[in-house]
Write a structure and sequence with these properties.
binds flavin-adenine dinucleotide, 5-stranded parallel β-sheet, FAD/NAD(P)-binding domain, single chain, 385 residues, 2 domains, FAD/NAD-bd_sf, alpha/beta
């Protein structure tokens, strides 16, 4: 049966989810929890599998590969319809999505946009960590270190909203590998954050600073890097770093989806229940694509939960109501030794009620902590083994 015929036969209200990452999965799980089988759920995304991005940091170091969940398997379990293609246009008036590559269109009653951020190389002369291509370039960089060709390594967090956490993990993992191999390699981290992983609050910053110092990692905070070939100028201190290798995290910009409101950088503006500002209340956005300044998996999941509940309520599929999402950052930090579990509440872009623990206080070992997603991913990983 074609997708169009299936849609005609199935008269249930349709929730469309644009995106194939963690926010999309968390939202699908939450819609099913609160609304059961009452809606059709259509997931439109270009990717066939959901890669757990945070686990990719360890791949170049030869740890186990990041978990990859095939959307076909997820769809079978949650009764989802999959439509392959990137959403190119949101037609708010006719409530439909237009997909790339002749993917046709998807009509919806309610929409959740979870298309993530776009990654942009921040510097011409740095190797950018691409979580979906850790085998190209990055694995070679680890080999260079192991073979003694990399004695001075700089790891840079570009300014703006982004993912600072993996920069710390890369610094710690490179330093640990150099130590294991008895290789002398000076690792330097440059970031505009005022303190180590500042969004996780003061306790976390102190604990992470201690780890960095113990690993011999040099740090520059409240700093911006200017990169030339083999050289980094750190401002405002005007410190020059001569480097054998320079690694950077990507700069993130918003998805700027045609048909939806966006900030100048392409981020999608939302209210506290994740409704897209300037739409009629049936269009929501969760995760890195939103204009919320902190880009993190646990935030993406909390937003997806709030959006799913409000959307289901608006469509008359559930009576859970609309609530503000709880902005809590949770992380399992890879350190090269035992992981560290960090948590904080985010208020006005700063971390409060900071906690640091050796075991996850939120009860799950998954790298991304989502109320629905963590147990789903753990169960999936268990079946894989
Ligand atoms: C290396 C690394 C380490 C990290 N470590 C952590 C960590 O330890 N803990 C943590 O909580 N967070 C961590 N993060 C951040 C976390 O991974 C992201 O915040 C999270 O993945 C955001 O989820 P999302 O669903 O919004 O976006 P994504 O996970 O980026 O998913 C977006 C999805 O939308 C699809 N898409 C893109 N464009 C379109 C379109 N036009 N139409 C339809 N679909 C589209 C993409 O193919 C993708 O499937 C890390 C990130 C990286 C890269």
């Amino acid at each position: 049966m074609s997708a169009a015929t299936a849609a005609r036969v199935d008269q249930r209200p349709c929730v469309a989810i644009a995106g194939g990452g963690v926010a999309a999965l968390e939202a699908a799980l939450r819609v099913r929890r609160v609304a059961g089988e009452r809606p059709r759920i259509v997931v439109a995304a270009p990717n066939d599998e959901l890669v757990v991005l945070p686990e990719t940091v360890a791949e170049p170091f030869g740890w186990r590969a990041a978990l990859r969940l095939p959307w076909q398997a997820i769809a079978g379990e949650l009764d989802l319809e999959l439509r392959k293609g990137a959403v190119e246009l949101v037609d708010l008036e006719r409530r439909r999505l237009l997909l790339s590559d002749d993917g046709g269109e998807v009509g919806y009653d309610g929409l959740l946009v979870a298309t993530g951020a776009k990654r942009v190389p921040p510097y011409a002369h740095a190797t950018v960590f691409d979580p979906l291509r850790t085998d190209t370039g990055f694995a070679g960089l680890v080999r260079d270190l192991e073979q003694g060709f990399c004695r001075r390594l700089a790891i840079l967090v570009p300014p703006g909203p982004g993912w600072p956490l993996p920069a710390y993990e890369l610094a710690l993992l490179f330093a640990a590998r150099a130590h294991e191999m008895g290789i002398d390699c000076a690792v330097t981290l440059v970031t505009e954050e005022p303190a180590p992983l500042a969004i996780f609050g003061e306790r976390a910053s102190v604990a992470v600073q201690r780890l960095l110092a113990e690993s011999g990692i040099e740090t520059h905070f409240s700093a911006v890097a200017h990169v030339e070939e083999g050289r980094v100028l750190v401002q405002p201190a005007a410190t020059e770093l001569v480097c054998d290798r320079i690694v950077a995290l990507p700069r993130l910009v918003g998805p700027a989806l045609h048909g939806l409101p966006a900030t100048v950088d392409g981020w999608i503006p939302i209210d506290s229940s994740c409704r897209v500002v300037g739409t009629t209340g049936h269009v929501f956005c969760a995760g890195d694509a939103s204009a919320f300044p902190v880009k993190h998996g646990s935030i993406a999941c909390a937003q997806a939960d709030a959006a799913a509940e409000c959307l289901a309520t608006r469509l008359g599929l559930a009576h859970v109501g609309c609530h503000s999402f709880r902005a809590v950052v949770r992380a399992k930090l890879f350190t090269g030794g035992a992981p560290l579990y960090l948590e904080a509440r985010v208020i006005a872009g700063r971390g409060f009620e900071s906690t640091v623990a050796d075991t996850p206080p939120w009860g799950s070992e998954t790298k991304i902590a989502g109320e629905e997603l963590s147990s789903f991913v753990e169960r999936f990983a268990g079946q894989e083994q």
